[in-house]
């Protein structure tokens, strides 16, 4: 079984385009992303590698506020990531295509306004 562990961070800055006061309404948000993972397959091939990726893009989204406390946020936009594998051991070649190149960032977030 292949195992992933690691973290990612994605700061963004939102420009709200609607007349509603932030954080409600339509927005455009440029972002950057950094990810660092350890990938291992100890069961079959005793292989392990470290992977890191850096990239960015822009999303268009809409956020709603319900009862002045609960938020729902939907977003979609293009992204580009560039990654590299280091410290690879064993005889398995890990497929990192999902973390490298052009892609689509989508999401649904639920939150609390305070």
Describe the structure.
The protein has 114 residues and is an all-beta fold. The protein has one domain. Helix content is 0%, strand content 68%. The chain is built from no helices and 6 strands. Strands 1, 2, 3, 4, 5 and 6 form a 6-stranded antiparallel beta sheet that branches. Strand 2 and strand 3 (25-41) form a beta hairpin. The radius of gyration is 18 Å and the shape is elongated.
Which descriptors would you attach to this protein?
114 residues, mainly beta, six-stranded antiparallel sheet, 6 strands, 68% strand
What is this entry, summarized?
The chain is mainly β and 114 residues long.
Give me the strand/helix succession: EEEEEE
The rough form would be described as elongated
The number of distinct helices, counting runs of at least 4 residues, comes to 0
| Rounded Rg | 18 Å
Low-confidence stretches: none
Mean pLDDT: 89
- The structural domain count equals 1
The biggest sheet, with number of strands, parallel, antiparallel or mixed sense and barrel status, is: 6 strands, antiparallel
Portion in helices? under 10%
The proportion of residues in beta strands is: over 45%
Quote the distance from N terminus to C terminus.
Answer: 42 Å
The chain-level structural class is mainly beta
How many strands appear in the DSSP assignment? Answer: 6
SSE topology sketch:
Elements: E1 3-9, E2 15-16, E3 25-41, E4 47-66, E5 70-89, E6 101-112
Antiparallel strand pairs: 1-3, 2-3, 3-4, 4-5, 5-6
């Amino acid at each position: 079984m292949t195992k992933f562990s690691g973290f990612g961070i994605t700061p963004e800055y939102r420009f709200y385009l609607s007349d509603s006061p932030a954080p409600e309404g339509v927005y455009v948000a440029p972002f950057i992303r950094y990810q660092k993972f350890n990938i291992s397959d100890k069961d079959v091939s005793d292989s392990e590698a470290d992977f890191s990726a850096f990239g960015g893009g822009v999303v268009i989204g809409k956020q709603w506020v319900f009862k002045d406390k609960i938020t729902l946020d939907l977003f979609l936009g293009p992204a580009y990531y560039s990654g590299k594998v280091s410290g690879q051991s064993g005889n398995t070649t890990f497929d990192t295509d999902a973390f490298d190149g052009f892609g689509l960032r989508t999401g649904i977030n639920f939150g609390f306004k305070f």
